[in-house]
């Protein structure tokens, strides 16, 4: 199997990575050696060196190192009562601590792969009703930020990107990411597209966006798919491939630039989620059922009814199960 056909799932990075944990253990090990060497050197008169009968600072460090890592070589021995007492009360516990540290590090290295596989299996078993964001560039990151600001949990988002840097950034933000080519069905299956509640395609190339949409639609015929394309001529192809909504980024930017400064400022405000005016979708409340959009508080742009978007004029009376697309302002502004 080639690299293009592979899919690798990267779970969110733990707060303390393997390197940090290993560094902590090394710090404890050197601390134990330093503490033992200090205890020996302070009571150096109670030790005998078979080489020259004098215990220097280097001899104390040497004695601490070989005593903690092995049982010692017998070339430096405690001879006084105080030195032997220190060996029993201080050096023996330090030796046991060092041994536990060494064994714990060994088991941690051996158990890392097993623990990671267990986390991966648990994640797969719980993967359902999530949102898949394909591409973690500028558009993908913006989409994720909007999803998070709308209350979606990080565990409910899976990112697909073929760039290791993008995947590293996503996992660093607490997201699960899949490394691979999004046009491949094996990569989309690894992200759980067949069980997803929504798919957002925000890749950099239009051909990849269209092929990703087509493959996603084959794997999940009912999932809502939102696609971003650069050129307007590719929007019909994206719709024919199965996209429910298509955003043309180049045309949208052109329209925004062509408006007057005031209109452009309002549109830019709407595009920046969580600040000023926001376009949101929410369930219709009981007191709103049976009323027309014009009679409701706020500005209602349209109604989602049974999976179909009805514009303001065609919505009629609000019904049970409808979702309202409205413009709302930040109460604090």
TrEMBL record:
The keyword Membrane applies. This is NAD-binding protein of Kef-type K+ transporter. Its main location: membrane. The chain crosses the membrane at residues 26-42, 88-110. It comes from Virgisporangium aliadipatigenens. GO terms for cellular component: plasma membrane. It is a multi-pass membrane protein. GO terms for biological process: potassium ion transport. Residues 128-248 form the RCK N-terminal domain. It is found in: Cell membrane. InterPro entries: K_chnl_dom, NAD(P)-bd_dom_sf, RCK_N, Trk_Ktr_HKT_K-transport. Keywords: Membrane, Transmembrane, Transmembrane helix.
